[in-house]
């Protein structure tokens, strides 16, 4: 269940990024929402696997460093999305191993 919840939270976090940069929507792209999503992702990742946990913490570190740039820097948004995709892949690989 934690895997599916993290996938949902990753999608919602990605929406925060897109809302901030592409839509310039301060409600959808609010960094406080991003902080909450990242916290939940990191917490839940501990219940999945060490690789997912490690990738989630790397995303959290990137977020800590670059969150203030999500409104203006497409490279930051692109990098964060790549990290999100890496976590998604790791979760999917983990689910396949469980079958």
Question: What does this molecule look like?
Answer:
- The protein has helices spanning 2-21, 31-45, 50-66, 74-98.
- The protein is built from 4 helices and no strands.
- It has one domain.
- The chain is mainly α.
- It is elongated.
- It is 78% helix and 0% strand.
- It starts with a helix and ends with a helix.
What percentage of residues falls in helices of 4 or more residues?
over 70%
Distance between the termini: 14 Å
Number of strands: 0
Q: List segments where confidence is low: pLDDT < 50 over at least 5 consecutive residues.
A: none
Shape: elongated
What count of helical segments does DSSP give?
4
Tell me briefly what this model is.
By secondary structure, this protein is mostly helical.
Features:
mainly alpha
